[in-house]
Amino acid sequence: MSVLPSTRIYEGTRIPSPVPTILEVDPEKHRLEDILRVNFGPNHPSTHGVLRLVVDLDGETVAGIRAVIGYLHTGFEKNMESKSWWKSVTYAPRIDYVSFQANELVYVMAIEKLLGHEIPRRAVWARMALAELTRIHSHLVWLGTSALELGAISLFWYCFDDRDQILDLFEMVGGTRMHTRYFQVGGLAEDIPPGFTNEARRFCESMPKSVDEYEAILDRNAIWLERTKGVGLLSADDALALGQTGPMLRASGVDWDLRRNTPYLAYDEVDFDVPVYPNGDVYDRYKVHMDEMRQSVRIVRQCLDRLDETEGEPWIVDDRKVVLPPRHELHTSMESLIHHFKIVTEGFRVPEGEVYVAIESPRGEAGCYLVSDGSARPWRVKFRAPSFAALQATATIVQDVLIADLIAAAGSLDPVMGDADR
Amino acid sequence: MTGYESVPGVVETRVSFDEATLVVDPTRLVDACAHLRGELGFNMLVDIAAADYLGWGEQEVAGYIGTAGGRDLNQAGSHGLARGPEPKPKRFSVSYHLLRVGDEPARVRVQVWLDDDEPVASVIEVWPAADWFEREAFDLMGIRFEGHQNLVRILMPEDWEGHPLRKDYPLGGEPVRFSDED
Amino acid sequence: MSDRPLAQAGLQSERVLWPDRGPGVFEQEVANIEDALLTTTIQKAIAWAQSHSVWPDTFGLACCAIEMMSIVSSRYDIARFGMERFSSSPRQADLLIVSGRVTHKMAPPLRQVYDQMLEPKWVIAMGACASSGGMFNNYTILQGVDKIVPVDIHVPGCPPRPEALMEGIVRLHEKIRAGVPPAYQIRGVAQ
Fold it and tell me: CB pairs below 8 Å between A and C: how many?
């Protein structure tokens, strides 16, 4: 099956021009005296954070829209330039704060690409398992909050209950529920604790049943179908032109997943399917999210088996110029002491160069463009944020929808404002 | 990496860390991008990253470099003598990361080098995704894109002065006060 | 039970449980306020009612908002305090939980939301970023939300666990029941 679909969702392009992200009111379709300009946000009931939409309404129809972002611009990139490589990893998970380990993963992988290290197998499997658990976590938060906005309020509590089980697993490995900072340059910060695989297997037993429950509530629910079918259409050509990736692209019929098309870590050694749906509306994006949750459980099971097989193997690279030596060696070996001192005070140095590494985060392609000048601090870190690209599609997908559909469509873009604003 | 010889305006081709970088003359950027999209099938613009190289190479690197191969004692500069990084041609670089979504995935980076206040053409006609990425590069780095109809600030407040991610812009913030001081 | 006035007002705070610790800022403030203690039964009843249904405002900004959402979830149920009714309209909210980093662009909307709330109103600065700017001491983040709104309770953490936020909320309830006035009456914004 080819990557690009052969059928079209709509003819031509719906991207507004001259500015693709601003939908101007068309004077032929709406009388300008009827237009009411309403401001959504930045503080609003929709739980996507501080997104501001300036909407021109003709009655209940959306005639024009413009998204204003920047209310959460934290200056991550400039802060990371002033910290050593090790300390700057702490900033990375707070960017996309719903799928936090995805950001850590892409940043750490970019540094490792510059260093040229090969990560031990145990660390690769652990990273994959945690990345897929992060994907399930992110989709649960998305489902809970999107369903809450569209009126399926009880789903919020069901999804967050499952999410608490995932956060328990993260707490087991990383010590804290969110922002674990468990991925270290060279592997993992510490070994996977004993008992983790059993707990995670128990979660994998219960998760598919939960997904079945959610689908039973929503899949053929008349209100859900009315509110999501045919809403927020985006064709494959428009999606590619607007730089969409992830569930937005797969719901428009494009069979593209970085885990399968350009595999990283060990995704080419596990079996999983990539859900693709042809209609490009909110309902298909919802179906993509649900199927991805199931596939992620499948991947986690396979990674847990491999983790059990690699029990006792190293979890971090053995290069003492980059990784701290084990503490017991500091009492006996002079070189270990010197390495420890150099790494902790000045930090390790990364060779000069520039790289771009991309992974499939739950929102799409999350990338990190890293420029190093050979010193102990990054020179330029730029994160390619999937939410930033997704929000550019707002003007395209809400043409002539009602105001209630605007909520559904904006929710289906899955924006996280920390990611969009960085 | 072969296959990029037909792209117009390419000044230099670099391959490092398995990535191809095409350095393009800024005046021919739109031709190069249109060719890459039309003929070579790079249908998605993934990212536009601007970088400021003011002060590049002034902090000298001494001592060992942490690489996987360890330290090569026979390589000049690895004994503790200072060796700076390779100098850059101009102050700013704007890197366009392109992706071919299709049956033969490929990535390429198109790079242009600019001086302070030197504008570059906008590629919004080639990929509409460039809209907000160029606004962000303008907002944070001060690079002007000609042909972009809405080049206003996007992340900083509209009345902000200065371009925060430039190297001569301070990090900002406040000095931290401790409770036993006054 | 120690013989501090707060203990007599029914406080269960851990400073009461560890009487050999000196008085903290919280108790200093209470001791400095002459009429902080509720004397009449009507005042005590009003304070009891207020503390049992503090309705928060949905001011989730960043990562702390995700932990604030999980305090609504069934494991760390906030409905047992009567607080599950998050109101998006500040006119109907009592408590502003500022959860997340506040940028200079977001500061005017935050102050506007705070001004729209009706008295009595309380503010919890949740997390390190709201309390002091957190790990982001830079050009764009407000170094502590108490520079623009008076804050009653700071909850540390990055992000604070739901139990930590609940500790902050419980202390707020104790404050209300003890009769401590909301922050806008006893202190202004930080300098």
Answer: 97
Residues of B in contact with C105 (CB under 8 A): 156-157
**Spans of all domains in chain A:** 76-421
Mapping DSSP to helix (H, G, I), strand (E, B) and coil, where does residue C161 land?
coil
Please tell me what DSSP assigns to residue B72. Answer: -
Q: Domains in chain B: how many in total?
A: 1
Instruction: Indicate yes or no: CB of B172 within 8 angstroms of CB of C138.
Output: yes
Q: Which of B122, B154, B156 to probe the A interface (max A CBs under 10 A)?
A: B154
CATH code assigned at C75: 3.40.50.12280
In a mutagenesis test of the C interface, which of B136, B139, B159, B174 is the best target, namely the one with the most C β-carbons within 10 Å? B174
**Domain-located, residue C100:** yes
B33: pLDDT strictly greater than 80:
yes
* Long-range CB contact pairs, B10-14, < 8 A, 24+: none
Judge: B156–C105 Cβ closer than 8 Å, yes or no.
yes
B151 part of a folded domain: no
- Is residue B157 in a domain? no
Domain of B87, CATH number, reads: 3.30.460.80
| B 48-107: CB under 8 A from A | 49, 51-52, 56-57, 59, 61, 63-71, 83-86, 95, 97, 99, 101-103, 105, 107
Q: How far is A34 from chain B (nearest CA, A)?
A: 26
User: Which fold, A76-421?
Assistant: Cytochrome-c3 Hydrogenase; chain B (1.10.645)
Chain CA centroid to CA A408, Å: 19
Residue C149 resides in a domain: yes
d(CA C189, nearest CA chain B) in Å = 16
Q: Do A49 and C65 touch (CB under 8 A)?
A: yes
Reported ipTM: the value is: 0.90
Question: Does residue B176 sit within a domain?
Answer: no
The chains in contact with chain A, meaning 3 or more Cβ pairs closer than 8 Å, are B, C
- Of A375-379, B82-86, C5-9, C77-81, the one with minimum mean pLDDT is C5-9
| Closest among A191, A193, A195 to A203, alpha carbons compared | A195
Counting Cα atoms < 13 Å in the Cβ hemisphere of C8 gives 8
The pLDDT score that the predictor gives to residue C3 is: 46
For A11-32, the pLDDT digits (tens) are 778 888 788 888 888 888 888 8
Check pLDDT > 80 for residue A303: yes
Task: Give the model confidence (pLDDT) of A305-314 as tens digits.
Answer: 988 888 888 8
Structural domain boundaries, residue B47: 10-56+78-146
Report how far residue C182's alpha carbon sits from residue C173's, in angstroms, rounded to the nearest whole number: 11
Q: Which residues of B touch C136 (CB under 8 A)?
A: 173
For residues C59 and A157, what is the distance between their CA atoms, to the nearest angstrom?
Answer: 19
Chain A residue numbers with beta carbons less than 8 Å from the beta carbon of B45 are 243
What total number of domains does chain C contain?
Answer: 1
Are the C-beta atoms of residues B13 and B22 closer than 8 Å to each other? yes
B69 in a domain, yes or no? no
- Token pair belonging to C163: 């139990």
| Alpha-helical regions (H) of C22-161 | 25-32, 41-51, 63-72, 107-116, 127-132
Over residues A202-208, the mean pLDDT reads 92
Residue B113 bridge partners (DSSP): B93
CB distance C143–B173 less than 8 Å?
yes
